[in-house]
């Protein structure tokens, strides 16, 4: 079986005017005076490789309709502004490439980096006033350790996890006080620069001058064979400032004493983080989606103490 090879009729250059090529602006022609809309072609326009986690990577067939749908969904959920400037870092076979399509629908600029060079990456953000980019976690960690990061001008980057809280201007102002969405989560970087989220700021307990992260204590309590679910909060204490208080929901048929619980936590986290007060409730108050309502727990305990 023979084959026929077709040579390209013309070459189009995206960012220059080399000999024998047509500049992109000239090739696209003047801007139309009226909006133009056409149904996307439903033939194959892209082959995207899978991650290969279950074997050899497979080629995913994407049609024009697939690309249009993905672009529409991205535009609905992603905080693109008018005329975004997107820094696209290879490989383009996954999200970094797919994001080019919604950027182009907005008439945005795409700056392409053929290989990862973080020094050049930081320079391109400032040079082109990049508004959006996409990096895999490995490159994010490398960028965080890059010596030029502290002095780089990244003010053009913008990305804002909503517009605010509905009919709650105070909470909206609090969440955006740093210029981006401030979740109130507390974390730390270990010696290898891995980020660990340990708690929410409002749930942190200060007892005897020490910070106790409620989530850390809860994880230990959930390892107890008698505990089905739990919540750890801080209650006012004249001696300690706040005392670590654990409210437990036990598994059916199990019993436990306050001393058992304290010893279990003390052996694993030390005496400071061991709960000084232990309550056992038949059930914990929850929201409609099943999330434990710590404010209600705190309110009940204050009421029981006459607070």
Quick recap of the structure?
This protein has 307 residues and is an alpha/beta fold. Helices cover 28% and strands 23% of the residues. Among the domains are: 107 residues, Rossmann fold (3-Layer(aba) Sandwich), CATH 3.40.50.980; 103 residues, GMP Synthetase, Chain A, domain 3 (2-Layer Sandwich).
Question: At CATH's second level, what is the architecture of the domain at 59-157 and 189-196?
Answer: 3-Layer(aba) Sandwich
Q: How would you describe the shape?
A: elongated
Give the strand order, joined by hyphens, for the main sheet: 6-5-7
Q: How is the main sheet built?
A: 3 strands, parallel
Structural class: alpha/beta
Per the CATH scheme, the topology name of the domain at 59-157 and 189-196 is: Rossmann fold
Mean pLDDT: 84
Report the CATH C-level class of the domain at 59-157 and 189-196: Alpha Beta
Low-confidence parts lasting 5 or more residues at pLDDT below 50?
1-5
């Amino acid at each position: 079986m023979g084959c026929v090879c077709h040579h390209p009729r013309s070459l189009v250059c995206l960012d220059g005017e080399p000999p024998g090529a047509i500049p992109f602006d000239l090739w696209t022609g003047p801007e139309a005076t009226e909006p133009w809309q056409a149904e996307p072609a439903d033939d194959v326009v892209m082959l995207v490789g899978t991650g290969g986690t279950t074997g050899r990577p497979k080629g995913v067939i994407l049609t024009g309709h697939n690309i249009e749908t993905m672009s529409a969904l991205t535009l609905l959920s992603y905080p693109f502004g008018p005329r975004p400037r997107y820094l696209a870092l290879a490989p383009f076979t996954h999200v970094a490439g797919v994001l080019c399509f919604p950027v182009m629908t907005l008439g945005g600029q795409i700056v392409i980096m053929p290989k990862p060079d973080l020094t050049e990456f930081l320079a391109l953000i400032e040079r082109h006033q990049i508004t959006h980019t996409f990096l895999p976690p490995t490159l994010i960690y490398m960028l965080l350790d890059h010596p030029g990061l502290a002095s780089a001008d990244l003010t053009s980057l913008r990305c804002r996890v909503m517009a605010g809280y509905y009919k709650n201007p105070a909470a909206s102002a609090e969440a955006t006080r740093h210029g981006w969405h401030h979740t109130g989560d507390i974390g730390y970087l270990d010696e290898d620069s891995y980020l660990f989220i340990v708690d929410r700021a409002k749930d942190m307990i200060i007892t005897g001058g020490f910070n106790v992260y409620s989530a850390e204590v809860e994880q230990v309590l959930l390892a107890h064979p008698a505990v089905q679910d739990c919540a750890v909060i801080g209650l006012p204490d004249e001696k300690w400032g706040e005392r670590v208080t654990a409210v437990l929901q036990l598994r059916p048929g199990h019993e436990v004493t306050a001393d058992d619980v304290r010893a279990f936590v003390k052996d694993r986290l030390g005496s400071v983080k061991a709960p000084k007060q232990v309550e056992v409730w038949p059930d914990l108050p929850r929201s409609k989606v099943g999330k434990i309502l710590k404010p209600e727990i705190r309110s009940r305990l204050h009421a029981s103490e006459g607070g």
